[in-house]
Amino acid sequence: MRCVIEFIANYWDAKSPLLVGYSGGSDSKALLYALLKTPCRSLLHIAHVDHGWRPESESEALVLSQEAQALGLPFYSVRIDPMGESVSREARLCFFKSLFEKHPFQALLLGHQAGDVAETVLKRILEGAHLTHLSGIDPVSSLYGMTLWRPLLSISKKILEKFLDQQRLVSLIDSTNFDPAYLRARLRLETLPWLTKSFGKEVFDNLLFHARRSRELKEYLDKKVEGRSLCAEGDTKIGSVEGLERVEARHLLRKWAKEEALFLSREAMEKILDFALKKETRRRFSDRVEVKNGCIVFLQILLKQENKP
Question: Residue 78: its pLDDT value, please?
Fold first, then answer.
């Protein structure tokens, strides 16, 4: 596929190995075999996570191992205890991270495609996510110190399946993708079709449109707050939102909170902005955040003990 060839040409440094997250399903299989047609072919490594959700998953992992061996590619696999979707995702990422610590991978490649973007956007809209967080999934991002690449985000599942047919490749079928007990399956099989039918219009492309516009907004706000970093002062970090419009200050505060691994509710964030933009002398909001002379101050956790004898 041309999109994968162009992606690798734009981002790969032409020397570092790449790790491919591989389930054997249609998306990851299309990604892997598209990558095999690029110059990075000999430097691909394959990583598979068996979530233990299905009785046949253990034998499938063996099939994928044999497939990797036939391709002459290194293969890493782990089986984890069955857990919920979010916990399993974290376990999967931790496994990938452990491989990054052993090998100099430039990036982890994942097979997310346009359908995944639409589902993610809808999920985040319903969760009340911030406008700049509606982009769904970015083609290039970072997580746990890993660079993540997703070359297929503009490609529909139908096109991927057509590619597999043309290559005479057979993918594994994961029954959990059709089980409404899982949120992703419900969105794909029930919610999106219901919305299209009830609304009387195709919503899929509109969700992708929102993803693009959200990404544009985020990039714009990133430029507006560029250069405004937290400054370390003793046991605190201080940043100023002076001169910013509220929408810009909110974006900056979200970035700072993420850097400090600090969750701020929407209500807390708005209160902090109220006092910071009014240049209040001093107001403590929690053990970690206060506003002082219009600046936002992030305190270290150790300060919790400051009042102890």
Answer: 93
One domain for residues 135 and 61: yes
Rounded-to-integer distance, Cα 225 and Cα 253, Å: 10
Identify whether residues 35 and 178 lie together within a single domain. Answer: yes
| 166 and 254 both lie in a single domain | no
Domain that holds residue 252: 231-305
Q: Are 185 and 177 in contact (CB under 8 A)?
A: yes
Same domain, 46 and 104: yes
DSSP annotation of 300 reads P
CA distance between the termini of the chain: 66
Q: Count up the domains in the chain and report the number.
A: 2
Residues 9 and 100 in one domain: yes
The pLDDT value given to residue 301: 63
In a domain, 297, yes or no: yes
The C-alpha angle with vertex 4 and arms to 28 and 134, in degrees rounded to 5, equals 75
Using DSSP bridges, classify how beta strands 44-50 and 75-79 pair: parallel, antiparallel or unpaired: parallel
The answer to whether the predicted template modeling score (pTM) of the entire model surpasses 0.90 is no
Positive or negative, the Cα torsion across 25, 27, 28, 31?
positive
Is 263 domain-assigned? yes
Residue ranges of the chain with per-residue pLDDT less than 70: 82, 84, 301-309
Instruction: Give DSSP secondary structure letters for 229-285.
Output: --EEETTEEEEE-TT--HHHHHHHHHHHHHHTT----HHHHHHHHHHHHTT-SEEE-
Distance separating alpha carbons of residues 177 and 200, to the nearest angstrom: 26
